[in-house]
Amino acid sequence: MHQKHQYEYAIVRVVPAVEREEFVNAGVILCCKKEKFIRMKYHLYHDKILILKPDAEMEEIRKNLEAFRIIADGEKEGGPIASMEPAERFRWLSAVRSATIQTSRPHTGLSDDLEKTFNTLFNEMVV
Questions:
Q1: Across the 127 residues of the chain, what is the mean pLDDT of every consecutive 10-residue run?
Q2: What pTM was computed for the model?
């Protein structure tokens, strides 16, 4: 029998015009504190974003999403936050913010295969 791991995840959203509160799901962050597991993956939907805001700064949005991935992956370019424990990085990435890149509130679940669960969430919520 496989061991079930408790995890948390948040959906990463692009909110091109914050005042309108319209968003496009762009990514997923999944974290399992016990396993020190964290993953972030995104896909930038240019067409959907430009429908919401025709003059959206797509390169800036891409850079911000990439910064989330770099921090989640713990890469040096992510600065001090990227050196934190995975669960602390998840908390920082999923904190409520009023910006072009936002996340849903964290949700929890159980998984016997964190990588598979992460990919399933990405495919269901983003792709």
A1: 90 94 96 97 96 96 97 96 97 91 97 97 96
A2: 0.93
